[in-house]
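Chapter review. Work through the record for Post-GPI attachment to proteins factor 3 before attempting the end-of-chapter questions.
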Amino acid sequence: MVDPRWITFIIVLPCLVGVLDASAGDADPLYRDCVRECETTGCVRERCFTNCKFLLNGSSIDGPWYMQEPLFLHWRQWDCQSDCRYHCMVEREKERAAVNQGPVKYHGKWPFRRLYGFQEPVSVAFSALNLAMHFHGWLSFFILLHYKLPLKQDKQPYYDFTGLWHIYALLSMNSWFWSAVFHSRDVVLTERLDYSSAVALLGYSLILAILRSFNVRDEAGRVMVAAPLLAFITTHILYLNNYKMDYGWNMQVCVVMAVTQLVVWAVWAGVTHHPSRWKLWIVVVGGGLAMLLEIYDFPPYKGYVDAHALWHATTVPLTFIWWSFIRDDAEFRTSNLIKKVK
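Structure tokens for Post-GPI attachment to proteins factor 3:
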């Protein structure tokens, strides 16, 4: 079954987007001059930064080792260059707005305004909300299986896909967690964790789609389906993190897995007599419409809300419906299995 995050091509956004260094904003000579001057003087107009007393490698310019940049600033990468780029961008956008020019991208990203240190606060908030929705869905699924539905004599659920959905829930919450972190601050580490988590969830969702739609119940069959896909996914993640962060290749891999998964579930929803298949259709159609938000990529309103943030917002209700479908599936199959036992 397909996660709302993956049922459209938008699901591959973490796979598609690479942070570029040749956008219109950072190619602007006035912006470049501002950054160069800031890194030399430590100031943008009247605003000065204490961390510009340190070199970008963290060593002190005019003091001993114990005067080096604090570790928490170094970890968050709020170094002199980051602050200079951000505040020069803000000042340059003010100048462009004064002459009725629209915003442009800087280093591959729209000009977002920080809020309490968060780089893209609205996307962070909706990523966290999606994480909470998955946790709520997983918890309600667990309560349904172990406290509301009949159990076998060994106290195990009748539903034969229970363990697979538990793994799916953990991967989903992990992916949304790193999505929130990545939108908080885009650095190499957070980017790789977000990309890797997204690929892992996408690949596992494809495996789960095949197993559930074809009702693969025996362990040998599951291993035969999962093993080659898990090997490929693992190799792909290792390739991105240890050899080359190839955005183009990553895009192709993610698109193939997403489209394959979408086709599998579309066919299954069309031929099955599942009583709650309409919920699956809502998720599929809703996710397809949400894709328009990514096609129509617009600058962030007031520096905070862009198309990607709105896409994160649409996945919140879709996630609720999705977990409702999973619970319905557990009830439906449990009822059928009990009837067969009797």
